[in-house]
Input
Amino acid sequence: MSYPPQPGGPYPQQPYPQQPYPQQQPYPSQQQPYPQQQWAQPGYPPPGYPPQPRKRSLLWLWITLGVVVVLAAGVAITGFVAPGFLVNKNHPVGAAGTLPEPQFMNELLGKLNAHDLAGAAAYVCESADESPASLVHGHFADPNVGHYRVREVEPLHEITQFVDVDSDFPGNPTPYRATFTLRQGPDGGFCLFGVI
Output
């Protein structure tokens, strides 16, 4: 039995049993890495579960498809209906639209030489910048102008041709000159686009 230590006295010594420590194994040159734990990223199911359908990508697909359809409809309406920038309007407003250039100029100059301005306005293109009546009346309303005739034809390209026309004024030695801009329509015929 042991007694409590006395003040000022030595403490009793109790023998502790000495136990040998186990021998440690040397570390291997390459340690095995710890296995990675597979954690699911936010918004995704954990591993082993079937993936959820991607609703957002389908939504964006439908939105994009809707925008493309609306844009295509807009281009089709404005291109073919109003104002119709995809439709070729290079044909006369009232005359036959399939006249080749020589025949077209003969008929147009015949109307101008007869001072039939309403008949000449029928040969103006629908795509002209001016209305047919103002185009013809603005350039050919002078009754003193004599006989119009073709002086030269200058093809610019397959759609536009320039035709130089001159006419004489009785009593004026300088001839009246003008350049007609002709446009070829989809049917191959010509119309009067402008006068310079």
Summary: The mean pLDDT is 78.
